[in-house]
Amino acid sequence: MSRTGYTVVVVTAAMFFLAGCASDPLADQYREGSNKGYIAGDGSVTEIAVAERGDPVEFKGSIETGETVTSGDYRGEVLIVNFWYASCAPCRAEAGDLKTLNAQFTGQGAEFLGVNVRDQAPNALAFNATYDIAYPSVLDVDDGAMQLAFSGSIPPNAVPTTLVLDAEGRIAARILGKIPEASILETLIIDTVAEGS
User: Which in 58, 107, 115, 140 has the greatest CB count within 10 A?
Assistant: First the structure.
């Protein structure tokens, strides 16, 4: 089988695996609290005052399409970085909120970037198609370089974790675990965007 044919088969299989977004048993199981031993963050929010933020986070990685992104690509805008993987129940449960917020803030001073910590491109792309995620994700499977870049004073200790970086690339806030409410992340983004006004 050709490489292209193999990729089509893998992507198709992954899409069937992720199909059923309307009724996602893994996400439903998480929402019900029967996580079957899954350990994640508690949704706690940490905000960092402007004067107390560390150095800008420097990163470089390849997204699902093979293109390279760097921290410099996002300087001057607030960046929301979400650590996730396809079979993570709370990641699935928060996907709708991330999709909505990304659409709300596109062109409004904030961008979204995912960091997939476990999947290869076909599974990541299938997840994006299933949950209608429009922003890219760095595939951090092989070397964990993205996780290492963010492992300073306020690391992403659970999956999912969502970080809000200010326009200088410094971490302004962290949600450890599933986003408790879309409005919480929305407020963090609005406040961080407003700092540059």
Answer: 115
* Assigned token pair, 90: 């709370």
Q: Which residues of 20-42 are buried (b: 16+ CB within 10 A; e: fewer)?
A: eeeebebbebbeeeeeeeeebbe
pTM: 0.80
Residue range 86-137, pLDDT digits in tens: 999 999 999 999 999 999 999 999 999 999 999 999 999 999 999 999 999 9
Q: The tokens 């198609």 sit on which residue? A: 129
pLDDT tens-place string over residues 26-65 = 445 444 554 444 455 788 999 999 999 999 999 999 999 9
Contacts of residue 16, Cβ cutoff 8 Å, sequence gap at least 6: none
Joined tokens for residue 151:
């492992």
Is the separation of the CB atoms in 88 and 159 below 8 Å?
yes
Task: State the number of CA atoms in the 13 A half-sphere of 184 facing the CB.
Answer: 17
Beta carbons of 170 and 55 less than 8 angstroms apart: yes
Cβ partners under 8 Å of residue 3, min gap 6:
none
Place of tokens 């996907």: 95
**CA of 41: how far to CAs of 72, 100, 145, 177, 183, in Å?**
29, 22, 21, 4, 18
